[in-house]
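Q: What does the assembly look like in three dimensions?
Context provided by user:
Components: two
Sequences:
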Amino acid sequence: MLFGFPLLSLIIWLPIMVGVAVFATGGDRNAQLARWIAFVGSILGFLVAIPLYTGFDSTASAMQFVEHRAWIERFNINYHLGVDGISMPLILLNCFITPLVVIAGWKVIQERVSQYMGAFLVMSGIVNGVFSSLDAILFYVFWEASLIPMFLIIGIWGGPNRVYAAIKFFLYTLLGSLLMLVAFIYLYQTSGGSFSIEDYHQLPIAFTPQILIFIAFLLAFAVKVPMWPVHTWLPDAHVEAPTGGSVLLAAILLKLGGYGFLRFSMPITPDASEYLAGMMIALSLIAVVYIGLIALMQVDMKKLIAYSSVAHMGFVTLGFFLFNAYGVEGAMVQMISHGFISAAMFLCVGILYDRLHSRQIADYGGVVNKMPVFAAFFMLFAMANAGLPGTSGFVGEFMVIMGAVKVNFWYAFLAATTLIFGAAYTLWMYKRVIFGEVASPAVEALEDISRREFALLAILAIAVLWIGVYPYPITEVMHTTVDNLLIHVSQSKL
Amino acid sequence: MQTLYLLVPLAPLLGALIAGLFGRYIGTTWSHRVTISLVFVSLIASIIIFMDVLDGNVFNGSVYTWLVTGGTTFEIGFLIDQLSATMMVVVSLVSLMVHIYTIGYMKGDPGYQRFFSYISLFTFSMMMLVMANNFLQLFFGWEAVGLVSYLLIGFWYKRPTAIYANMKAFLVNRVGDFGFLLGIALVLMYFGSLDYATVFTQASGMASETIELIPGMTWLVITVICILLFVGAMGKSAQFPLHVWLPDSMEGPTPISALIHAATMVTAGIFMVARMSPLFELSDTALSVILVIGGITTLSMALVAVVQNDIKRVVAYSTLSQLGYMTVALGASAYSAAIFHLMTHAFFKAVLFLGAGSVIIAMHHEQNMQKMGGLKKYMPITYWTMFIAAVASAGVPGFSGFFSKDAIIEAVGFANIPGAGFAYYCVLITVFVTALYTFRLIFMTFHGKPRMDAHTKEHLHESPWVVTLPLVLLAIPTIGAGWFIGPMVFGDYFGSAIHVLPQHDAIEKLGAEFTGVFGMMVHALSTAPFWLSVAGIFTAWYLYTVKTDIPGKIKSRCGPIYTLLDRKYYIDEFYSWLFAGGTRALGTVLWKYGDIKLIDGFFVNGAARVVAWTAMLVRRFQTGYIYHYAFTMIVGVVAILTLWLYQF
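A: Here is the predicted structure of the complete assembly.
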């Protein structure tokens, strides 16, 4: 805690309060006001998160910036917050992405502006809550609450098939997390009345219950990540979501699942994790190879990027269950990098969609002739998506492959196929959309990106290149936490 | 001196950034002025460093720490020794020449600044590759040159063939990189570091370590690592069967064909294997693989070159074949000869390409040699420089190509590992084929009767000085570079940069017989390669200037063989059927049946349907009619009463 100041509470509640203030601006006659409040609020949200990084002690193994207050005393539920080297980078990522989604919706959203902007700010606060909760019930509340703004964003501002997509998204993820609640209640009983996640980490659990708890968690987290075969909600959700929604979904919401594995599954049920690691690795590798092949055949740009997200998130779960530092840190880097790259990819598609109102690859062709600056940015992000060294996309994949080969050569072999498939689906799409002669009068009428769009893409480009060229600072904050986690996981709880 | 090391890659990077980001503001002239002067700075720095290395100052140090994870430190750093210094001079020299040449070749192109930005970026990437002191940075440079190659092949992005070729190049290279990255991963796993020095010092201790990849089959770790690394080299240096991208890369503008797809980037694989000589020396199996792959590439690609009519394609296939020579040299542990041939080839092939480009400008972008002929009198500078390069390429004594190629052939003759015999005959036969296709190009293009249309013929003229100057400057080392063979190949020029085991040391045996360059030339007169080369030139002369109707007759007599060569052994068709078609079919099946039908259709929406169906059943009970409820109630009461009555 910085001078006793409740920083984490501020990081959670400031965006939510601003979000409420944005709602309060009411109808669309105050749209401009709503936009500006949302923008300033999101920037403030990012600024208050900076002390989290500067004040973070990367050598300390305990939770930092801890806040602890009684909430529902009867059940020993507490308002208990804290961060470590795993959650802190994710909070920063979230606070970084929020201003971008606000700017991304600046011109495109012309109806119910205040609700739209407000929803994103509230979402930002809720997600920070998920990442910093150390009490299981508090976590669960934030976790489920995060569904609501996203459900609304897809359901209200989405495409023609938005209702199906929104309901599919909601039910899929809700059903997944119900069993997690059951697991929490079981753990509450076994631990003698505690909802503290840190208590659960130390709690001895027999083998069979561990397996059951692991599976309960798995359903919740696997749907979020999403892992194969519970990934089919994602392409639909992305296709129907507005650009900002897709960005948020890919950059932040998918990370909740990955975070869950590190915070819950692995430390609470280490024996089950180890026992089922083979299955987890198999599912992850299927995601990389199978989804890579599916992505190749997509005709809808957003679907293609959605599938590519699933494949990239396969590296995250693969890295976790290798149980070595390369794998876990690589997976963390992959999560952050994917946050930037997928955000950028969806923004790029959004920029095209705003102009042509089509996501079909076949409707484009020769865009570079009309939008050279855009094409240059898109090239950079496409290459990052294909894992080119020098971009952030390489770092995580590289680390995970290095970790995988230590466990089994063939894991690394299958994972490394992403070098080929990732490049194939990304560059093939790029070729068909960007290169060639101007394909239609609609493309002929395209205008290059505006200053606002330029700023968005430039910020993400800097982030992508910076992590690619110098990933040292990002991994530096993780080492202690990850090392402790790995030591913890290696000790049996039986 | 260390500032100078940094300057070598960073100066071109700065040039690339300026031309790329601000090119539209500073205009074409300033774009090329800035990039050319910065590449010139890089050249001067490289030469100073080269001199310094000759004085024995070898440097190995890190610039910054890229990443620390799992107890391993990954650093970005430079290893400056004889090998990297040689490469730095070659790369910056050819790059500078190509920069200057580009002023003339790309004049008036709307992407002028972009082009300069790309080739400067390439110079940066290539420098990072050759100066690396660890595998990670090597891989960075490796992929970065691949990226620039992709961007440049597709430079004219409106052409469907260009944007197909660049994707193909990138993907085929990615197949190589796939193996390369796995090799690097194994290096990290077994050596605990990616730093060259650390790995190489431990290498001999690792020589007998085995790995069981498939249960029941054990391999030497070193063999697996070396073969995987070599897969990377096969992609980048276009060795069979990953060679398919290089001929198509000719869709790019000619300057980059010279710079990237002949002189520098494609030799990265050769450089890499030479750099890794302490590892490759420990695996005879890997060296055998290299010999065989190199041998196949050398001969099969040279044969294809004979039937090509596109001037650039001839040179492209020639490049493939010459890369095969270098690969064979690597397999025979003649690393110094491979690097020496890399250097001489960089010069004479750059001349051939830039000369071809000069011809193409004069011909108004006509590349078909059947529509050329008799250009000699219109383009004397181009003709003579290309002629010198052709002579060097054919291996005529005195010219650079002769020395490097002869050293390779002799070294392979001395090699005694499996595959050496096969490779030896491949390279020997190829000498004849090389002379044949090179002089076929010269005779078809510059001699005989002009076959172009009248309009083109009227406008024929020599290219401007920015085009011819690089040709002339590069023609000098094309003649002269070979004379350094004494110190560079047989002497201890490379010092500790290259490591050869005593039992592999064919160069040592050759060096014992080496009596100076003149002795080598005299000796050559009594060996097969010389006479094969002469025979090749003579055949080309006879077929393409004296009896010009014979080639047509041969073509119709040997129909199937001609077609096989013309279709490049049908490898492209086979790949596009198997790999492109196969993955697309597989992707479609997985998508339509796996995702849509099975997961979404059966499980997800199926679950929803089960819920809906159950709900529909249950709903029947809630009709809202009082008499339904009353009736149900009565049935219930009766049932309970009956149970109650009969139970007691």
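Follow-up: The mean pLDDT of chain B is 87.
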